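Case study 2.
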Amino acid sequence: MKDILSKVDIEKLFQHVLSIEGVKHPLVDPDKLNETADYISSEFQKYGLNTSEQTFEIDSYDMTFRNIEGHIGDDSQPEILVTSHYDTVRNAPGADDNGSAVAAMLEIARILASENFSESVRFISFTLEEQNPTLSQKHRDKGLALGIFDENYKYSTYHSQKMIKKFYSNVSLRISKGKPMLEAWQKAYEMIKEELTESEKEFCEYIIEQRSHITKTTWIGQTGLIGSNYWVKQAIENKKQIKGVINLESIGYTNKRKNSQIFPPLMNPILFPSYKVKAFRKIGNFISIVSDKNSKQLGKMYCKGCKHEEIKLPYMWGKLPLRFEKIAKWLKDTLRADHAPFWKENIPALMITDTANFRNPYYHTEADTIDKLDFDFMKKVTQATIATILDLSYREELL
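Prediction:
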């Protein structure tokens, strides 16, 4: 294993992020979205993987979307999946979210392919993790018609910017405290209704109407996680055997200052297993490993990989002793990535993350750029993922 881990090339990680950095959103730059899909596919081919793409469409949107896959090993055997997403929100170049993860996934694919690795490993980069473009387009068009936004999707007035952001923030806070989604939207609106202009009221009411049918368990595949949800549905229909999933989600940002790390509501870091982490100091220098009840053994293996003598990667293991339904009710923040559709189907899956907005102040902003990333940290995450794959390959199944 030492020899394999030593092959992780930090320069290759950097060049991957450099190549794909940029807004990759179907409403803003569909060309960059497709160029990035092509880049991932071409890298898989360069490394000798069996490369394919899964295409799909969504209602009321004239574009074909693409999940990109590369495979090594015996495809008749249960597969280990290494996943990422390559799209971004509409304003962010996405160096951390999620260029860092795509880079690590590609480097893992290169190294394992060069080793003639016989275990069945499938690498997938999903699209439309961030948003449903149809829903985004409807919101944009309504906002334009009401004068909430200008042609560049910027708020037309300070008042609208302040109040609509306050509306969304109140919704998120209520959902994080376990409130039903429709109730969260309605109560958040009632809180600020008297402060809104007539146009702002109409816009908020329209948003609530558009989301009135969405619940804490049905939003997956509707408002986000669309590519991964589609992939999982097809895998279930085709009776694909999956041994375990390692989903890489924003893995490149660290901050070594005290109080640079915060935690989602209801998640007390003192209660979680950790390595080389002093939770009470709230320093954002660790990788977060998030598992559900079905993924406990996989989480334990990833922790073991982090402790390898060649890696020594600080981690905090968010070991949730719950299954999807209860997690969806109480801990929605832990479902905001492409592992969630797997959890929904009781498939062992991990989210490996730097915790995104709970640490990174540039999350989903124009400042999510390559100069903010910690590539030494990314190298260790890449190595820990390889170590986990190697460990998992020797096991018949996850108990």
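The chain has two domains: 2-129+225-393, 133-210.
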